[in-house]
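Posting for a labmate who doesn't have an account.
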Amino acid sequence: MSSAAWLPVIGLAVMVPLLLWLRQNMIVVLGLASAWLYYFYSQGAIGNTALDVWQNARNETFLAIPLYVLAGNVMANGSIAQRLIRVMQAFTAPIPGGLALAAVLSCAIFSAISGSSTVTMLAVGGVLYPALLKAGYNRLFSLGLLCAAGTLGIIIPPSIPMILYGIMTGTSITDLFKAGVLPGFLLAALLAAYAVWKNRHLREAQRWDLGEIGAALGGGVFALLVPVIILGGIYSGFFTATESAVVALFYAVLVDMFVHRHLTLQKLLTITEDTVKMSGALFPMLIMAISINVFLGEKQVPQMAAQWLGGVFSTPWSFMLAVNALLLATGCLIDIGSAILILAPLLAPMAQTMGLDPVHFAMIMLVNLEIGYLTPPMGLNLIVASVAFRERFANCCKAVLPFIGLLLLGLVVVILWPGLSLVLVR
C-alpha cells in the first residue's frame, strides 16, 4: 500500500479509540468503522454496510444466543438452579470445605445449562454467598470463588461466547462445544481443589445424610436431566447447537411452570422482555462486526496480516506468547463479546497459518478472555458481583487474585496439551 492509502487506516485507528473514550455505543463504533472502510477502499460503496446487515440478519445461528440466554434466565429465576444447588450441598456436606466445593460444582453444572457467566454467578451466588458467610467461610474467599467459578460459563458448553466465536470465524459450533468439555472440567477441578484445600478445617456435617440426599435427588431429578438432554443431544448429533437452545428453553419452561409450578406466566413474560432488550442491543452490534469481517475477507486482510506475522514471529510459540499477552491485556479493557467480534476474525486465520488447530486456538482464546472477566477495570464479573453482593469493587479485585493464578495455570495446560481440547472432536 502507498503512504496515501494508509491515511484512512490511521484515521480509523484514531477514530475508534476516540469514540470508545467518548463512551459511544459499540453499534455506533462498528457501524462507522464498516462505512469508513467501504467508503475509502471500495469506491465509496457505503451501501455495502446495509447490504451486509441485511444478509447477515438472516443467519439462523443467531437464534441460539437469545434462546440460551432466555433459558438460563428462566432456570435462574425458577427453581431449577436452587434444586441443583441443593443436590450439590447434600453430596458435599461432610467433605472439608464442602460448601465451597458445592459452589464450584453448582457453577459448573449450571454453566452447562445457561451458557452465560453472569447468569451462572448470580443464580448460584445469590443462594450460596450468604450461606458461605453464615457457615464461617472467609468473606474475600467466598467472593472470589463465586466470581471465578461463574466464569466457567464461558468455557463449559453450551457457551454464548463460543457461539459468537463460531459465527465470526466459521468454526463449527458443535466442535467448539465438544472441545470445551475437558478444559472446562480442568478449570473446575483446579477451583474445587483449591476451595477444599483452603477450607480443609471447615465442614457442615460429619457424615452423609441419606434422607437429605434422597430428598435432594428426588426434587432435583428434572434439573439434573437438563445438561444430559442438552449436551447428549448435541454430541450424539440428534440436534444442532441452535436446536439445542430451543430444547433447553422448552424444557425449562415445561419443568418450572408445569412440574415444579414455580414459574408464573407473568414472571415468564418479564424474563422474556428482559431477554429481548438484551438481544436488541447485541444483534445490531454483532451484525455490524460481521460487516467489517466481510470487508476484511474481501480485501484478504487476514491473509496479508498472517504473511506479515510470519516474518515477525519465526515459530508458533513466539506467536502464541504475543497473542496471549494481547488477549490478556484486551480482557482488562473490553468485554468478551466485543473482543471476539474484533479480534477473532483476525487472529484465527493467523493461528491457522502458524499451524495451530482452529478449534484448539479457539479454546486458548476463550480461556484468555475468560480470565478477563476477573481483571479490572472492565472485568464483568467483578462489576456484577460488586453490585449483586453489595461489596466494594476494590474488594472484588483483591478477592479474585488467587483464582486468576489458578485460571492462568489452567490456560498453560490448555496451551501445552492440545489433546485436552481435541480428543472429543477428532
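Reply:
Got it, the C-alpha cells are right above this. The chain has a mean pLDDT of 79.
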